[in-house]
Amino acid sequence: MSIQQRRLAKGWTQDELALRSGISARTIQRVESGQSVGSETLKCLAAVFETSVKHTENTESVTFNESEKSAIKYGQSLLQTPKKGESDPSTRIEREAIDYGKSLLSKLKQKKSRLTSQLSGTANSLLGSTSLHILANYYQPLIGV
């Protein structure tokens, strides 16, 4: 699966992927267009998608050393809420900050969804009224009004 397919499967824009990966949006564009990028870029993308990307569109092989694997696993564990009976590697304040960040992200996604549907409805009504206006202007001289 290509980087672009992975990004789209998550419902992310290139800018969102850039924010999550710490890579510039321009670099994301380069990756998705098949241009050559460095292994560090590919490692960042692999970490964001929680996978070891062996082959990307660039066909460059990406491997993680043990410390990188450990760092990715630790980062993922911080974002996971521990199950009952498991110890939390985060302090109470860190966990509250992570949970607060997750709730903000969730709220932003909900707002984005509402705005998208509102904009879609507005665009459709504008398109409809524009079409009617164009038709009226076209037929007005024909019917002599």
3D architecture notes:
The chain has helices at 3-10, 14-21, 25-32, 39-48, 66-79, 92-143. It is mainly alpha-helical. It folds into 2 domains: 1-64, 434 Repressor (Amino-terminal Domain); 80-145. The N and C termini lie far apart (59 Å). Residues 55-61 have low confidence and may be disordered.
Per DSSP, the total helix count is 6
Structural class by helix and strand composition: mainly alpha
Percent range of helical residues: 55-70%
- Overall mean pLDDT: 74
Let me know the number of strands: 0
Which tags fit this structure?
145 residues, mainly alpha, 434 Repressor (Amino-terminal Domain), 2 domains, flat
Give a nutshell description of this structure.
The chain is mainly α. It has helices at 3-10, 14-21, 25-32, 39-48, 66-79, 92-143.
List the helices and strands and how they pair.
Elements: H1 3-10, H2 14-21, H3 25-32, H4 39-48, H5 66-79, H6 92-143
